[in-house]
Amino acid sequence: MADVKSIREAMLASLPKETSDFGATPDVKHLYVPPAHIKALRPECNLVIGTRGVGKSVWTAALGSVELRRVLGASVPELGNIDVRVGFAEAECIDNYPDAATFAQLLATGYTAYPIWQAVILRWLAPDDVPRERWSETVEWIKTEPENLARLVQRANQSFADKGRRGLIVFDALDRSSQDWQTMDTIVRDLLRTVLWLRSYPRLSAKVFLRTDQFARPVTDFPDASKLSASKVELIWTRHDLHGLLWQRLINAPAVCGEVLKEIYLDVVQSSPVETEEFRGQLAQVAKRETPEQRQLFSSLAGPWMGSDKRRGVPYLWSVGHLADGRGYTSPRSFLAAIREAAEDSLERYPDYPYALHHESIKRGIQKASKIRVDEMAEDYPWVRELMRPLAGLTVPCEYELIVQRWERDFPKGPSTVSSNSLPPQHAKRGWDGIREDLLQLGIFMIKQDRRIDMPDLYRVGFDLGRRGGVKRLSSA
Predict the structure, then answer these.
(1) What's this model's pTM, rounded to 2 decimal places?
(2) SS3 track for 143-155
(3) Alpha-helical runs (H) found in 381-427
């Protein structure tokens, strides 16, 4: 068995420094498909919902890659005979879909979002048969040539049928299409209407990845929207999914580092990872499920307890539970960031500790992951940081009235004065109660049975609020 220092260094070599791929195609070695996500990847699933960091953009990029679709085909055989186009995403591609400024200009000109999305689809299906110099030309053609539009889409459908294949167009990062909620609602609603229109062609389908708060808006208030909602899948990572993802990355670490970690895996699972063309190692089923073997794998890295005895908690449970948001969901991005920080902190602070992850380092990993999560939240919802800043130093759980007092002190004219260069709070017009509703929906706030406001460690630590006996807030760490 390798020494602890080598194990820590191997973990650092295998876990990502960056917490986001920024829309880039993921490395095939890092592709991990939780069983619950298989349904979301199937072509017939039109609507996929998830919070930030759960994999929406990863799956968009993976579906758009011929190589990764081939790998995903082992879990989702339907992807073996499919051609994919990305119809909107974080990475701009003006020839394939309009960016936010172009979308705004088209809407300001008087076009609705419905023909704009049809234009995106038609540029994919019949690129040589429609004007493509400017998006306004394509959209105008869509509006004036409804019969030709139908014929071209029907021809494309038949072409896929003749080849024994299917066509799929994928839409993601729709929060980047507008900075106004009403406009956003219109864009998303008309996209979902367009997806429903496409369903009438058996060989063509569309998949839309939406943030949870976007789907909570009135975007499905149109006839037959229930047909889309029936296929909806929510991207959730269970505890065993996260631990499976961790070990998939560990055993595929580069060169000698991977061998060091495979030795631990072999000692626990009693079988070597399965070698494939794409992976240096794939996990056995017992390492993907919540089994004694999976628990023992993490115990071999972190020990049995979060301290001197069982009263302090079990690292296998503790490391995931303290990274959950207010709805109980933990993202893979936060989990991997916390484990990497724990390995680095253990290497620096606890060279003589017998396990790779010291329990105090795991707590510092939670702190680091919380800071990252808060920064990510500020990117998507800049107003959240503004509203949480007055609450720094509070101890939760606390009375809601105490929170309102601090907000009123810093924003005497109400929540409408909170600055935001992106989508503002959804329910600001309802006053501070509306802000509370938004924060509950985002998983930042929780309400206890006695009606006091609580916060999960994932956000509490990074926003610098305290809790008696909990993970220390950043300013006091």
Answers:
(1) 0.90
(2) HHCHHHHHHHHHH
(3) 382-388, 400-410
Cβ 407 vs Cβ 424: under 8 Å: no
Task: Report d(CA 153, CA 159) in Å as an integer.
Answer: 10
Confidence label for 189 from pLDDT (cuts 50, 70 and 90) = very high
Query: Do the Cβ atoms of 160 and 203 come closer than 8 Å?
Result: yes
pLDDT of residue 21: 59
pLDDT of residue 174: 94
Q: Which residue has the tokens 């191997």?
A: 10
Give the range of the structural domain holding residue 278, as residue numbers without chain letter. 4-12+238-377
pLDDT higher for 284 or 111? 111
Write down the mean pLDDT value for the chain.
Answer: 92
If one counts every other C-beta atom within 10 angstroms of the C-beta of residue 254, the result is 11
| 361 and 386 fall within a common domain | no
Number of domains in the chain: 3
Smallest CA-to-CA distance from 129 within 154, 165, 102 is with 154
DSSP 68-110: HHHHHTTT-GGGGGEEEEEEE-SS--TTTS--HHHHHHHHHHT
Please tell me whether residues 456 and 387 are part of one structural domain.
yes
d(CA 339, CA 369): 9
Ranges 73-77, 296-300, 419-423: which has the least confidence: 419-423
Q: Is residue 159 part of a domain?
A: yes
Question: Considering the domain boundaries, does residue 20 fall inside one?
Answer: no
Residue 200 to residue 24: CA distance in whole angstroms: 32
Question: Does residue 321 lie in a domain region?
Answer: yes
| Beta bridge mates, 209 | 48
Q: Using CA atoms, how far apart are residues 243 and 265, in angstroms rounded to an integer?
A: 13
Last residue of a domain, one of 189, 217, 234: 234
Q: What gap in Å lies between CA 109 and CA 34, rounded to an integer?
A: 44
Say if 250 falls within a structural domain: yes
How large is the average pLDDT for residues 88-108? Answer: 94
Closest C-alpha among 102, 103, 61, 100 to residue 84: 61
